[in-house]
Design goal:
The chain is an alpha+beta fold. The chain has one helix and four strands, in the order E-E-E-E-H. The structure holds zinc ion.
Length: about 70
């Protein structure tokens, strides 16, 4: 099960292994899922992010914020 980079409603990028990738595909990135954002510390609606739309630095930063580590 791969991990995905998601963006919370506040715009924070973080990663999680708890997102159901089987529901995702090209052009099918919504709706979000309620996850605890490690940067807000609150439950937020988070949506998966297309890695192609992010810079390498943004992706690296998102991997360091692990939603599951706080669960
Ligand atoms: Zn957040």
């Amino acid at each position: 099960m791969g991990r995905v980079v998601v963006r919370c409603a506040e715009g924070h990028l973080f990663s999680t292994g708890a997102f159901p990738m089987q529901n995702l595909g090209p052009g099918r990135l919504g709706p979000g899922r309620l996850l605890r954002c490690p940067r807000c510390g609150r439950l937020r609606s988070a949506v998966p992010v297309d890695l192609g739309a992010l810079s390498g630095e943004e992706i690296a930063r998102a991997w360091r914020w692990d939603a599951d580590a706080l669960a």
